[in-house]
Write a structure and sequence with these properties.
three-stranded mixed β-sheet; two-stranded antiparallel ribbon; CBS domain; ClC-type_chloride_channel; transmembrane; Chloride channel protein; transport
Amino acid sequence: MTGLLDHMRTHNTPPRLLAALRALVRKDTLWLIALAALVGVLAGGVVSLMTAATFLAHHLLAPESGRLSGLATVNPVRALLVPTCGGLLLGLTSLYLARKTRFHPADPIEANALHGGRMSFRDSLILAGQTILSNGCGASLGLEAGFSQLGAAFGSRIGRQLRMHRADVRLLVGCGAAGAIGAAFDAPLAGAFYAFELIIGSYTFTALAPVALAAICGIGVVHLTGTVLPPVWVATPQGIPLLAYFPIILLGVFAGLVGVMLMRGVTLTEYTFQRLPLPVWLRPALGGLLVGGLAIISPSVLSSGHMAMRAGLISSPPFMLALGLLGLKALASAISIGSGFRGGLFFASLYLGVLTGAVFAGALAPLAVLPVSVCTIVGMCALAVAVIGGPMTMIFLALETTGSLPLTGAVVVSAIVSSMTVRRTFGYSFATWRFHLRGENIRSGVDVGWMRTLTVERMMRTEVATFPATETVQAARIAFPNQTPRYIILCDEQNHYKGLVENVLFHANRVPETTPLTELVAADDLALTPALSLSTAIDTFERLARPALAVVDDDNHILGLLSERYVLRRYAEELERTRRELAGEKYRV
């Protein structure tokens, strides 16, 4: 604090104060923790404001009600009209954004994995508004996507404004997501490990204090504003028999398969909407109409399903009812995402998991091995692990929800089994599956962006030895009598690339002097382009087993040379830098 006061006395203008704050944050880890707390407070404020806004919107569909999924009945006219109008408004808004602005919001996972934590605050704000509109009109999606998006955007904006190190910006993005998810569920451990598993991509001791503090601060804000739900009391057994773990394992497998079917169903529904002869902006209206029709059958399909989930935990529905609700909710969620509504499947997967557990308990009822309450909790967490991809997040959420250590042990088993089932049968969580459909091969927020920014153009050597491709071995020996340079690039009169020849090859005694140099070029010779990434260059070297490759432009003009040894050295250096960042050594030289 003394250092801050000294800086304030010597830097009495806003730009200088900002520069002073940048220096303090970079020099002292305690100031980074303080920034994490600030990000957590902002994320908690986001949760409070977005929750209040959706409550107001829900009054259009069901006056004098808070959460739609807890309704016993809903007015059929409102059920059809409000989601349809909401979808139409969302479609028109998306059409305007597509024509007037560049709207390409980066998900927190994608931002941390590929862009060093860089997120557009404007795009995140628009996305949060679209999420409020989608959830507010009754689309069967949760608010957590908007919560984490805007909370992480605050962290990204603060980190970039202070010109912090790449690793610190990524950490603040994780803090924003932790504060948002922790506040949404009133669960600090679940919020913290959501950030570690999904947003940051790894757990480190140095990141524990800022991430945990951000989650706690976010929870504090929602408690102060009164937007947190009261705790749910679930009857849990004092202990779980050893033989009961066999059906728990089966439940984990079942929940994993249900999660895979849900993710496949979302993709199929999205493909179906794309094939319809409708303009893109009209698809959400059709989706809203279909969801409204399902809501007439059961209002529990509306919105995120939070109240329906709590009701299912307190009093589990019978087998046939649970099976019907499971199909309705899964179909409503798939239609909502496939038609273009904004939102996430975190909240929805919890309710679907409760129904999955109830269905499993009903099928297992003749054996009477597991209580229904155990099946619903275990199913809730197992299905959420399958969809979200965060085992520790759901394990801690179960512990913080129930306070039961024996039940948490069962959740651990089911979460591991569910995760392994999805990995072996599908390979992706919902978020990473969506990235895969877009062509992005990322599975978490682990920083791999440096492999894309480190391109061939940045690594190649531009000072290269070129020689006419029409010459013979004798001419090359005269022009290059020594063993340097190691590689000779052959070219024509227009500097077009014709091949790469190693010096020792044309100096070999077995090669006649009259041999044309082009005959020494390997049959599988290939040149790199400057835009290729580090990972692509490494794959090319491994496939061709060549020690060096030329670099050419689109017109086949020679630009430079890149050796495999240098590429591997740069790769090792970046891995070592990443290791130091994880160990908290990023400021050392």
